[in-house]
Write a structure and sequence with these properties.
- The protein is α+β, with helices and mostly antiparallel strands.
- The chain has one domain: Pleckstrin-homology domain (PH domain)/Phosphotyrosine-binding domain (PTB) (PH-domain like, Roll), CATH 2.30.29.30.
- The chain contains two helices and seven strands.
- It has a seven-stranded antiparallel β-sheet with strand order 4-3-2-1-7-6-5, with helices on one face.
- The longest helix has 28 residues.
- The termini are far apart.
- The relative contact order is 0.14.
Length: 141
Amino acid sequence: MEILEWIGVGVLVLLAAIALLFGRRALVARGGGTVQLYLRLSTMMEGRGWSPGFARFVGEELRWYRMFSFAFRPRRVLARRGLAVVERRGPAASELLMLPEDWVILRCTSFRAPVEIAMAPSTVTGFLSWLEAAPPRSLAI
């Protein structure tokens, strides 16, 4: 009987973890403006380093959260002011294991470091609109 109790506890813990992941996503998305987005965390190996997640547009920032994380803080924050798209391409053959083939990969520069993000074509349109809607930069004299 003791083994069945441990199996029951294990199943209960697993269900609680899944509920926490979905609850976290619902809390973050409650303010609206979320999109599914993959971010390339490591560029050490060609075609690798992609991590699934979702992003939320909050004013001048794009806050990216890992899909399978319990953290309520974003893993990466991209400021609109310092972000520029350098290249637009489709997934390479080695990236098709992780990314859908119709998704678009954008290589961007930012103040911190270059970043690659992958998203659905419809999301690209919204992302580029958000990026271009930035107020003009003021020149310090």
